[in-house]
Every structure is written in C-alpha cells, then in structure tokens.
Amino acid sequence: MTNKTNTTSNSSLFSSKNKWEELIEDKDFVNVFLSDVLEDYIQKQRWYGGKSSKIKYIELSEYFRIQKEGEVYFGLILEVNFVEAFYHHYFLPIAFVSDENYTKEGRILPLKLKDQEGFIIDATHLEAFRKVVYERISTALPIDKTPVQYHKTEGFKFPTYESSRLMGVEQSNTSVIYNDAYILKFFRRIYADKNPDYEMSRFLSHKKEFKNTPPYLGSMNIIDSENVNITIGLMQKLVPNNGDAWEYFLKEIHKVYKNIDSKNISFANLPDVEMFERVKISEVSPQIIDWIGLHLLNKVKVLAKRTAEMHIALGSEFEETAFTPTRFNGDYTVWLKNRLTYQFQNRLNLAENNLHKLEGYSLELAQEFLDSKNEIRKRLVNFDWTKLKGERIRIHGDYHLGQVLVQDDDFCILDFEGEPESTIRDRKVKQPPLKDVAGLFRSFHYAIYSTIFNHQDEYNKEQTALFEYGELLYKYMVSIFMETYVATTKEANLHIGYRNERRFLLKYCLLEKAIYELGYELNSRPKWTIIPLKGIANILNS
To answer: How many whole angstroms separate alpha carbon 151 and alpha carbon 137?
Structure first.
C-alpha cells in the first residue's frame, strides 16, 4: 500500500512496501504518482507541449523496462488528457537514486521503498541510465523480437562507452551526446507510429547515402500493447559544424545592411528582378554584387544545390512504398483544402481578437489581411490538381534555416520530424518538394526582417526604406536559389513542374506558410506579425 508521510524535513515523502523493480505494479503508488506528482512536474518541462491547455488527468498508457544485467529503469508512456484539446502522449524514463547528494536536476519525488529511501528522477539526468541505453544500442542484434527494440546500423562498430552529457538547449526533445561523437535524441512527445525523423534519417543517410545529413547509427523503439512500432530514440553521428544557418545568415545579412551606409548605396540605382525569376550569379549586375557581395549569393547557391539533392534522394525510391513518388490527385486536393481552410479560419479569428496589440504598418497589414479574407480563401480552394504534372514526394516538412547546420563551405540538413502542429499521419503525406523550398524562402524573409529589428539603431536609413532594401535582397536570394535548384532537379529527372506550375505551387505554399506563421507571431510576438503579414501581402499583390 502506498501512503504519504511527513518526514522530519517536513517534505512530503511517498512510501511503498515494494522494491523499485516491482514499484510499477503497485497500483496505489501509480495512481498517486500520476495524479499528485506528474501533473505538476511535466507542466514545468521544456519539452511539454500542452502549456496552453488545462490538464484533465494523466494515465499510464504503457510502461516497459530499460535494463541491463540487474540495472532496471522504467520507460513510461503517459497519456495526458486535456479539458478542451486532443490528448498527447509523452515518454518519460524514470530511475530511482538513493544518493542524497544527487543533483536536484530532473528530481521528480522523494520516495521510501521497502528497502531504502531516495528519489525518483527523470532518468536522462543519470549517467548510469544513459550508459545502459548506449550499450543496448551498440550491441543490438539484427533481429530483435522483444517489446523494447534496440537497433544499430549494419557494419558500424560502436566504440566502448566513455562519457555522456545532456545537450540542454532543446525545446521539444532531449538529446544526449556520447563520447563527443554521437548524439541520441529521445523523442518526448510521441505518436503511435514510427517517428518521421527516424524514418527519413535512416532512409536518406543509410539507404540513399545522402551525404548532407547526419549519418543514422541506431534507434530505440517499443512495440506497444496494440502491436504498433513507436520510436523512442534516434542515434546519429555528431557532425562537426559552425552553428546553424539561421545565425549564419543573420550575420551575413547584417553586413549587407551595413554596406548601404558604408558604400552609400542608393536604392534607386539598384536594378530590380522579377519574383521567382531564375538568375545565375554571373548575370547579377555589378551594383547588386557591390551591395550584397558574392559570398552570400554563393552560400544561397550551395544551399539550393543541397536542398535539390535531398529532394532527388527522397524522390528516387521505387521499392519502399512510403517513399515512392506519386502524382497529384483528388484525394490529396481534398486533404489539402480541408486542412488549409480550417487553419485559415483559426488565423482569421486570432487576427480579429489581437488587433488591439498591433500598431502602425503591422496594423495596416493586418487590416488588409482581414479585408482580403475572401480572396485568400478563394486562392486556397483554387487548387486544381488536374493541371499539375509534377511529382509529390516525402519532404522535410518543417524546412527552415534553423534546421540546417553550417559546415565550412557546406551545409548539413537535420530534424525531419515535420510541422509541430500537424498530426503524425499528415507529416507523412507526400507533398510537392516546392513546399520545402517555400519554407526556406519564408526563413530568408524572416532573417531579413529580424536583422532590421535587431540592429535598427545601427543603420542610418528609416525603417520603411530598410524594408524596401530587404524586399529586393529577398528577391535576389530567391532568384539565385531557383536557378540552381531547378537546374539540379531537372538534371536528375525529378519532376517539380514547368515554369507556371512551379510559380503557382511556390505562391500557394508561401501563402500557406505565412498563414501558419501568423498564428505563432500573434500568440507570442505581436511586433513580429509584420513578417508573415508582409509575406501574405506580397503573394496577394504578385
């Protein structure tokens, strides 16, 4: 029987007559643990995604042992039910430590067991647990029939365990660095299916030998009570890098803006370029090169090539049905329209309810957005698949500069989990590859405007003038990207559609992305709503 007693230190101590290895079989303990303890604990965790909803109750959906030679840890799958939203599932590995000196990090609750006192903690904070997981993956057998399945890639020999540490900067997952050479990502919010990050990483690096993504080395999955394979962890090689492309492009764009003042560059003297027009670097005018510089344009070109090569790899499979390319059809159109009209309605309501937070140009654009609602709705519904000849493939799905690492003169693409707001099934739907391209273009747009907001005091020009320069810089980045991306995909026979189809799809996907972003900005950073609103206005006016 479980009860709660007061200890001399006046903190609540839970007790159970069971040993740690049998604790999960103590129903009373589990009930108290779920209702009194975890509700409070998980709401404080960075990886918890239900902060805007009210918890109704938490259930223990599944549990399994993570063990090696007498060392036992428990993996819990928690079902969090909300008052007004759909439930979430979370993975929480737990350990029992009796050491008083154990770090407070990850501590969940003090506990008195049959044979000792101590604490239940989040096991990822315990080196002994991290070591067990590493050793189980590194010695995994090719065929594993147990409920907890460890997998390692054939032909790779893991060295002996030396060290491990938590990466510590993430939001939605928890990553462990091993031997300063490998990274294991524990997925916290989980789904009744294989995680797309695991599927895509294994497919790209292992099956297609795509060199610009971290090599897949192993994984940890569980087979749940309904015989569904659920991904818990993904092991990859740690790739040496100089940080992500978001930070890199921010620095480069800041230099471009500094050039306006130091070189006294007049906007009137800068030749314009048509949106989505393909332009080779050798064709860019000397005035633009003087202002933007060759370095940045070359980086955009390399990123375009790597993006195209990723899509070529994803579109070159003819055996594994999850990855075989397909065409546009009526089913896809119905799925797309339903999804987007629902999302659009949600953003309209948000914009109407948050107008009071906006001012100046943002307010003007928001008003324009609301006034254009019928036209936008018409554009979203006006998706005629019968006119589209290109292919749909599995795509990255949440592609932006933050998902790309910079490696000297190259880039490495990671994090294939897909759009956080989408269901796991939606993330695996085959899409036009230009949807990823549109994600990256929105990221370019964001980087340009962020630079203006972050450094405004350092530039001589007024904000409206800075926006003008920014829109022109954006068009050139897009044009350089399109030239290399289209040429590379064509050469490899990946069908992304002819010129008019490409333009239609890019505009459509850019509109979808900007509408998606609007939700985040209205909720979190009203000042920044100008960025997605300007993106929407650009599409409507083009």
So the answer is: 6
